[in-house]
Request: fold
Amino acid sequence: MATRITRKNKNLESTLPLTISAQLGLVDQISYFDKRVASANLTNYILLKKGEFAYNKSYSNGYPFGTVKRLNNYDSGVIPSLYIAFLNNNEIINSDFMETYFETSLWHKEVSARAAEGARNHGLLNISPNDFMEISIKLPTNMKEQIKITQFLHDFDSLIALHQRKPNR
Reply:
């Protein structure tokens, strides 16, 4: 349902280093950290294009299995090869559905089952790119149903956010 991306930034198609923020998604590293943490040479970084996904297997508060985000805010950027990049197969899974799915914890059990013993190494989950790419995702086979589910969950999140902003009386 997805294809791994290993495309290198050999021709410096992008000079925008990105990082994955669990709350903000794929963001410009310089804006996020207030400095550049990427190496000076970006040719060995993975070139990520708009609509493609990246998995950061690093633990962060509230995200024990790391986080998966889709590149939404830039046409392209580069990520370190420590991240696992992939693109959904549009004939099997809707990109918005996949993005919404990875906002849940439903995929954690699959990753946990594939992570090697001594699952953490320097805060990183010990899961190979091949093992990550083999996780199963339960989804409706009907594309229209995937779109409806995604829209329902998006509308529900918006409603919750609206009620949270509402002043108490």
